[in-house]
Amino acid sequence: MTDDAPAVSWTTEGRVFSIQLANPPANQLGRPLLDGLATALAEFGASPARALVISSGLDGFFAAGADIKLMAGIDQAGFAAYGEELRVLMDGIAALDRPSIAVIEGRALGGGLELALACTLRVGSKTARLGLPEAKLGLIPGAGGTQRLPRLVGRGRALDIMLTARQVPGPEALAIGLLDRLTEPGAARPAALELAGQFAAMSRPALAAIMAAVDDAGDLPLADGLTREAERVTGLFGSPDGREGLAAFVAKRPASFA
What we know:
six-stranded mixed beta sheet, 11 helices, alpha/beta, 18% strand, four-stranded mixed beta sheet, single chain, 2 domains
């Protein structure tokens, strides 16, 4: 990799949009990666792609977290602005109406894990190591980690991970729900692309509705969540994709969604 290589690159494969991070030595979330990722996400937002895959082009790292050298050289106001930029980026990924998949080979630490937590799903290999080690710096996760991690793994496990600042190995991460799929080393990205390809064949409105309804389950009282579920399924029933899906089932043919 040359010094002038972009920190972030992207390609489209069918209806899958793939972003690759490559900011040596460890994909730290500094200016080159933040700017490149923001541009790539804007391109994805304007594209007809149905799913997003975020992976690393560096051996041993998905992303190692915030840029510590940058943080050490700024004042509190600068730190607040940096943190807000990270949060806006993570929140934007979490708010996407299309599935996103983080591919984790090696370490996803601090802000790197927060980036993965903002994605819909996480596919990692047995070499993955995931952690939020901010306590070692006298800080706490500040880009969504304290909120998104407990929602995935529960309060006790989240506290264990953050208070000890330990790195969770891939098999354990799968067992506690921090990873959704586990592969052999080197196979995480192909597995993620295969999964994204399955999403790409689905109805985009249906995928968006499922993601929103599941989020409601964690945010709303049961009665309110059930009401929204009913509203969504009724709306989808009358939609072009809903009519096509039912017609395809009756005709015993694959559905062709717009």
